[in-house]
Amino acid sequence: MGSVAWKQLVLNALESNSHLNHSSFMQLATIGTNRTPSNRTVVFRGFQDNTDNIQINTDARTRKIEELKLCPSAEICWYFTDSWEQFRINGTVDIIDGSNPDPLKLQQRENSWFASSLRSRSQYLCPNPGLPRLNEEAQPEISLDPSTGPVDAFCLLILEPNLVDYLNLKSNQRLTFISNESAAAKKSWIVERVNP
Amino acid sequence: MGSVAWKQLVLNALESNSHLNHSSFMQLATIGTNRTPSNRTVVFRGFQDNTDNIQINTDARTRKIEELKLCPSAEICWYFTDSWEQFRINGTVDIIDGSNPDPLKLQQRENSWFASSLRSRSQYLCPNPGLPRLNEEAQPEISLDPSTGPVDAFCLLILEPNLVDYLNLKSNQRLTFISNESAAAKKSWIVERVNP
Questions:
Q1: pTM of the entire predicted model
Q2: Chain A partners within 8 Å of B124 (Cβ)
Q3: Which residue intervals define the domain Pyridoxamine 5'-phosphate oxidase Alr4036 family FMN-binding in the entry (chains A, B) (predicted)?
Q4: What single string gives the DSSP state of each residue in B57-79?
Q5: A179 CB near a chain B CB, below 8 Å?
Q6: How do residues A130-166 score in pLDDT, each as one tens digit?
Q7: What tens digit of pLDDT does each residue of A19-74 get?
Q8: Alpha helix (H) ranges present in B63-127?
Q9: Do A132 and B22 touch (CB under 8 A)?
Q10: Less crowded by CB within 10 Å, the N or C end of chain A?
Q11: In Å, how far is A89's CA from the nearest CA of chain B?
């Protein structure tokens, strides 16, 4: 197990838990603006191209955006309920909203928008999440043209990992993966077996 | 739903998800010693007596203890995979290890020790978690006398909540609960319906 890349372990876990709808749900911790931790469930939207970077879609109006602007560090805790595997993935987050000056990043944001279901996309047109609910009556059904590009509230987050802690509760094995300092596109990882 | 206490919502969720072994698993976020977030799965060990406080058992040798000593703030993210409910529970954590000067707290620690399975208890006799695994061979089976009290590494955490965010993805409803500033034993909560 010592020489296995953590990304392959994630792909294996996704495969062996793919019968569970929640297998792509992970918890993303950030540091709140009041310096206390924040933690919420987000959905894994795949690895970015051929890298180790993790893609997450989010609403630009949520508190996590403000938090990540102040402190871009985050840690994902991802527990697979059938295979009893936990990944703790620590890294820094790049926020890509519609105002991003990089055309390549804007293209990634658009790709992630169109890779989402229409139902997911329409959530970005709902009232501001977390604000008091003003209208007690049922919200009107939002219809969104399938060809419409990303709306203002749609935001792509890219987490670039630098430390991964893998725990397998069935085999009782634990591995830590630390990235080297190299800024190269293809970074390498040092793996160590640690006590569970 | 507006007047329901969040604790009752937790108890309801535990009941409706009780067929799943992982329903008591939650993710605890803290602030790391290097000021980046830390996040890991822990087990809900019940509410403390008749309070809203949440009990968690942990190994005193894990990194979270050092982190909580520097910053006692934490946020639990607890997602129930069958009922599609999420609780985000923010609060401060009291660390109760064997050196605690309060006899009442030591009693609580002992109660929590004996409420755990023998298998859980024996984990606190294993080699230091997170340190390099020195012995590649299988660890000898640890036998622990059922009458033995809490060992040095056993630590009880008590999280006292002050902010709870509840999201129900089936009904698409979201509530926030904020505790009042009263230091009374029975604190009260202000509830507000917010946009999901």
A1: 0.96
A2: none
A3: 5-96
A4: EEETTSHHHHHHHH--EEEEEEE
A5: no
A6: 999 987 666 677 889 999 999 999 999 999 999 999 9
A7: 999 999 999 999 999 999 999 999 999 999 989 999 999 999 999 999 999 999 99
A8: 63-70, 103-115, 118-122
A9: no
A10: N
A11: 9
Q: How far is CA B60 from CA A7, A131, B57, in A?
A: 30, 39, 9
**Residue A132 carries which DSSP code?**
B
Is residue A126 within 8 Å of residue A57, measured between CB atoms?
no
CATH of A6-130+144-183, one of 1.20.272.10, 3.40.50.970, 2.30.110.10, 1.10.220.30: 2.30.110.10
Tokens matching residue B64: 């979270």
Cα–Cα dist B38/B130, whole Å: 14
Give this complex's ipTM.
0.95
Using a CB-CB distance cutoff of 8 angstroms, which residues of chain B are in contact with residue A196? 126, 129
> CB–CB of B138/B126 below 8 Å?
no
Q: DSSP character for A4?
A: -
Helices (H) then strands (E): counts for chain B: 4, 8
Residues of B in contact with A35 (CB under 8 A): 31, 71, 73
* Side-chain half-sphere CA neighbours of A21 within 13 A: 5
- Residue A86's identity, in one-letter code, is Q
At residue A181 the predicted structure's pLDDT band, cuts being 50, 70 and 90, is low
Q: Which residues of chain B have pLDDT under 50?
A: 1-2
Question: HSE on the CB side for B195, CA within 13 Å?
Answer: 17
| CA trace torsion A165, A42, A55, B29 (10° rounding) | -40
Per-residue pLDDT at B180: 84
- Report angle CA A53, B196, B28 to the nearest 5 degrees: 55
**Closest-CA residue of chain B to A127:** B195
**SS3 category, A127:** coil
Each residue's pLDDT tens digit, A106-127? 999 999 999 999 999 999 999 9
Tokens of B42: 């822990």
